[in-house]
Amino acid sequence: MRITAEMSMYPLVDEYKPTIISFIKELQKIEGLELVTNQLSTQIRGEFDVVTSAINECFRKSMAEHKKLVLVVKYLSADLDISVAPDLG
Fold first, then answer.
1. Burial category of 82 from C-beta neighbours within 10 Å (exposed 0-12, middle 13-18, buried 19 and up)
2. pTM to 2 decimals?
């Protein structure tokens, strides 16, 4: 089953950007994921096991390196085309 996920990370430190960038770069290394990142969140789509495993693996690595982090993830049981903005017309 293919799914779509949206994530926002909140490192609880003053210099938060490097932690977020590192997390996204780790996700980008994983085969089988499509990622779209903007100023508010990162969206991922792919096979359920690939998406969920990637998020767990990369967050575990971030927690080991940076300790105080919040990660908010929303999962959608649908394969949305995240590369195209929705038609609101």
1. middle
2. 0.88
